[in-house]
Amino acid sequence: MKIKKRLTISNILMLIIPLVLIFGVASAMKEPFMKIYDKKNEEFKLKDPYAYAIQDKLRFEMDKIIRKEDLNDFIVEVQKFLEPKGYNLIVTYDGEIVSSDITDEDRKAISQIGDDVVFKSNSLVLEMNSTCFVKNSFKKDNKVINVIAINSSYVPVRFNMRDEMKNVMFGYIGVVFLISIIIITITNVILSSKIYKKLIKPLELLSYGSEQIKDGNLDFEMNYESDDEFGQVCSDFNDMRLRLKDSVEKQLKFEENRKQLVAGISHDLRTPLTAIKGYVEGLRDGIANTPEKQFKYLNTIYTKACDMDVLVDSLFLFSKLDTGSFPFKFNVMSASYYIESFYNIAKSEFYGKNIDICFENKCSNLTKIKVDFQEMNRVLFNIVENSIKYNNNILVKTKILLYETDDSVVIEVSDNGKGVLDEELKNLFVGFYRGDTSRTNPSEGSGLGLAIAKRIVEDHGGKISAYNMNGLIIKIILPKVIKVHENK
């Protein structure tokens, strides 16, 4: 999952999860706080001496009286209700007091109200000074039953619903807010830690990779299995490491080849120079004291100088090819026509040199390649000359095979020689390599021929390789020239 997507989901979850949990907690906490509010309301109702509440209670309980015997249970039940509220009770049945627990203060208050009001009036509620008088009166079996509740130390109490609800709500909101803070903190810590782990691991891995490269170690590997942006970065880092490693290896190989090139140049120049120096000293010291010897010495000096000239020319050509400054003259021509032209030239060039050259063409005459005629001839001549030079057979048989693939033209030059050792094949196109470690016979060649051939073929956009098969086969692959025909 991409980091951007992961961060987006994490941010959404940081909103959704706390909201869901807070909603759940708020819903769960609502019931307990409502119970607290209801409990306070009930407690107030138990203690509230409000007269009309007393009257309603008395009226409700009186409905339970069926006969006179029910008065006892009624009186007990009502006294339990009135006692917490500071009321005392008088019950009369057909003008007779059947129960009374009033105090002297109550009697004094009744006397102020008047007996006619107290005993002869119908149901009423009376609040006067510090006295609250509640009377319920009804008939049962033609008998009048009066139930009188009196509180001579009446202090009105009012339940402030708004304040109580406000207190409960403030408490409810405070608890929910506190729990919300805890939920948000825990959610953010958990989600942030997960994101942190996802980010810190690849960062540490990249830091490790940078340290390894800084220390010169290019053999490590960045193992990070993920499809996020860091996965791509680590993959690119690995590719960079591999390219850097390849570049370093190529540089080391290049330096090694340069050292070998310098050593080869030094050796191959020293050999003819030493010979020239020796023959000049022979002339100077009079060792060559006859015209025949002098001619021989001078001819040898000239030959060695010519060898040096060839070597210098080869070095100059190799240097220009190596730096990419050689001026090729490319022409588009038929591959069959070009190879057949070379074949005819080679037959004439090597006539009488114990070599039999044959040509087999499996390529269409319409197949074209882009080639520098002169320089590609240099490549092919060098290959054929090597067949003669390094073949001990009396008659060298060389075959030139031309064929094509979907997008390439292939030229194979094979001989009937003993081939090349497998371990030497990889060095065949390295400058100054002749498979001759002693290098005692530099006149047989500079060792630059196939190295130059490789550069020329590669500058043609092709490839050159060698392998053994009943002799040595040099294989050259050149790209076809594809022409796009436009319909007019």
TrEMBL record:
The gene is gtcS2. Residues 264-482 form the Histidine kinase domain. It catalyses: ATP + protein L-histidine = ADP + protein N-phospho-L-histidine. One of its GO terms (cellular component) is plasma membrane. Its EC number is 2.7.13.3. Pfam families: HAMP, HATPase_c, HisKA. The chain crosses the membrane at residues 169-191. InterPro entries: HAMP_dom (IPR003660), HATPase_C_sf (IPR036890), HATPase_dom (IPR003594), His_kinase_dom (IPR005467), HisK_dim/P_dom (IPR003661), HisK_dim/P_sf (IPR036097), HssS/ArlS-like (IPR050398), Sig_transdc_His_kin-like_C (IPR004358). It is an enzyme of class 2 (transferase). It comes from the Bacteria. It comes from Clostridium saccharobutylicum DSM 13864. The keyword Mitochondrion does not apply. Residues 197-249 form the HAMP domain. Gene3D superfamilies: 1.10.287.130, 6.10.340.10, Histidine kinase-like ATPase, C-terminal domain. Keywords: ATP-binding, Cell membrane, Kinase, Membrane, Nucleotide-binding, Phosphoprotein, Transferase, Transmembrane, Transmembrane helix, Two-component regulatory system. GO terms for molecular function: ATP binding; phosphorelay sensor kinase activity. It is a multi-pass membrane protein. PROSITE patterns: HAMP (PS50885), HIS_KIN (PS50109). This is histidine kinase. It is found in: Cell membrane.
